[in-house]
Amino acid sequence: MQDNTARMLKALRNEITEYQIYQRLAQSGRDSKNRDILGQIAADEKGHHDFLRTLTGQEVTPNRWQVWKYYWLSRIFGLTFGLKLMEKGEQAAQKLYQDLAADIPRAARIQEEEEKHERQLLDLLHEEKLRYAGSVVLGLNDALVELTGTLAGLTFALQNTRLIALAGLITGIAASFSMAASEYLSTKTEEGERSAMKSALYTGIAYVVTVFILVTPYLVMADYFVCLGMTIAAAVLIILAFNYYISIARELDFKRRFAEMAFISLGVAAISFAIGYVIRLLLGVEV
């Protein structure tokens, strides 16, 4: 038991910190179902804390930085993302309870709660952001594939950053309305909880935001090859950030999803760049 004292004190602080996070989120939530789930998990964390406190005979204060960080991550990016990101760091606590279980039967039950019960409860959270994740994926994917390819083709065909930006914005904004309308009609025919209007808005906004991020280099810089490089780098960063979010929130394979999406987007860009070069040579266009 002596060897586990330091680990128990660390776990003790972790439990009271997570209790504070769940409690604050439960108190600030608007959805009654989510408040009940978060309150139940908070009670579990408080019980784990009280159990460890009886073993150590010590009291600790919560990590205020962790409370602030995960509270605001959950408020901004969604409860599922913020809390599952936090729970990914609990391996040390689970290992501790596993080691204690041989001598203290209650530790085995706590380990089970840490591994399964809280994860099951988190999966029950009502999260609008995740319900419409498919619409966001549609907007992002289409904008990344279509516009990265378009800008790559225009870069070699036009070789003028202002003209490329103009053509890219017109193409991108027009395509965003088209995609939003298609998503609206598609969702309208489905039977489910998703609103057709919200689905269209999520798709359209994701598309437009992606368009402006990808076109921005052509608005602020003069060298069109540097602009293309920055656009491709921005596309990779968007793919990286979004797939990290989805992999945490939905517990999916990050590396596979990122590689697949990046390969498609960059592959289309490379093909479009080559097409722009060939067309320019065949037509003999000079801008």
Summarize the structure.
This protein has 287 residues and is an all-alpha fold.
Q: Can you walk through the features of this model?
A:
By secondary structure, the protein is mainly alpha-helical. It folds into two domains: 125 residues, Up-down Bundle (Ferritin), CATH 1.20.1260; 155 residues, no CATH class. The protein has twelve helices and no strands. Helix 1 runs antiparallel to helix 2 and helix 8 packs antiparallel against helix 11. The longest helix is centred in the last third of the chain and has 30 residues. The mean pLDDT is 79.
Question: Which keywords apply here?
Answer:
0% strand, 12 helices, 287 residues, mainly alpha, 2 domains, elongated, Ferritin
Q: Provide the number of structural domains.
A: 2
Query: What percentage of amino acids are in beta strands?
Result: under 5%
Helix residue percentage: over 70%
Number of helices: 12
Low-confidence segments, given as residue ranges, are none
Q: What's the shape? A: elongated
Task: Using the CA coordinates, give the radius of gyration.
Answer: 25 Å
Q: What is the β-strand count?
A: 0
> Structural class per helix/strand content?
mainly alpha
Largest sheet: none
H/E order of the elements? HHHHHHHHHHHH
Q: What value does the average pLDDT take?
A: 79
Cα distance spanning the termini: 78 Å
Describe the oligomeric state of these chains in a short phrase.
single chain
